[in-house]
Amino acid sequence: MACESEKWVLMVTAQTPTNIAVIKYWGKRDEDLILPINDSISVTLDPEHLCTTTTVAVSPSFDQDRMWLNGKEFSLSGGRYQRCLKEIRSRASGFEDEKKGVKITEKDWENLHVHISSYNNFPTAAGLASSAAGFACLVFSLAKLMNVKEDHGRLSAIARQGSGSACRSLYGGFAKWIMGKNDDGSDSMAVQLADEKHWDDLVIVIAVVSSRQKETSSTSGMRESVETSKLIHHRAKEVVPKRIVEMEEAIKNRDFESFAHLSCADSNQFHAVCMDTCPPIFYMNDTSHRIISCVEKWNRSEASPQVAYTFDAGPNAVLIARNRKAAALLLQRLLFHFPPRSDADLKSYVIGDKSILQDVG
Ligand code: DP6
Where are the beta strands (DSSP E) in 293-347? Predict the structure, then answer.
């Protein structure tokens, strides 16, 4: 390593949005490598709102790898962080910045330590896929810092080893995580189905029912489902493969009716699997159920669906409106039925590219 002074610091900052699955990933066939039992499809949210911002820095004066999450130091000892760091380090290439007098060879990276600082602009671990944005951003920023020359597909396979759903956040628009067949996970990665401009009529409204941390993490919830639910295996083998084909078709043709039907059905089946788990897992609450009823009732009163809903491992509703007009009407309905007051269950709303987050809780 050649450098004029030992005082230099190299830094990279990246921002990665979270993604919401419309065909869910739930269940692993390999816990260590994070290999899923079915393909999944997601829509990546607007980077302006629900995203993670990560700054990674390297300097010869750092004596260990360290990380801060939302300003608090966080242990990097977990296997998932270590795996991502190891995978990126093993692909690092040499770097030279004449102005700063910095020259790092491929081998130097083994002995250089990194500092990582990450911020979420949304509730962590409240079923808003914070780990997806977090690991995608970590892998992407480390890859830039260490001059890794891999495409998004290969980087997604590394992010997958941090958190499965993270692999889909490497892309904007719509992404598919291909489960892959290989035991070593080399073919389990995400691809982009369509970019963010392809279907820009859609407006996403998130109704934040609760920003509390969930009781059962996705990781342990899906492990318990794989071990105890029969429905999950039927879903993975018989239901999802067909839905994946239909969802890809719906996205390609911007067919909102099919998109809404598939998204709602898949969310409901995922929660049915949670109920079929022993002991049952309840991610949704009464407010979530009331939101479903409200949307279902409205959709049925129209010639074709106006809004799709989907819920991840938490009570918050992700509502996808077919266009701005439907989003405005949806918001009116939500505000009427669920006024965000401090004593109400529903805390705030986040809408598409314009935030109207009103945290009144
Ligand atoms: C319900 O990706 O958080 O959001 O791979 O164990 O980290 P790990 O789980 P995670 O699970 C996400 C589950 C889900 C559905 C989805 O995003 O596809």
Answer: 307-310, 317-321
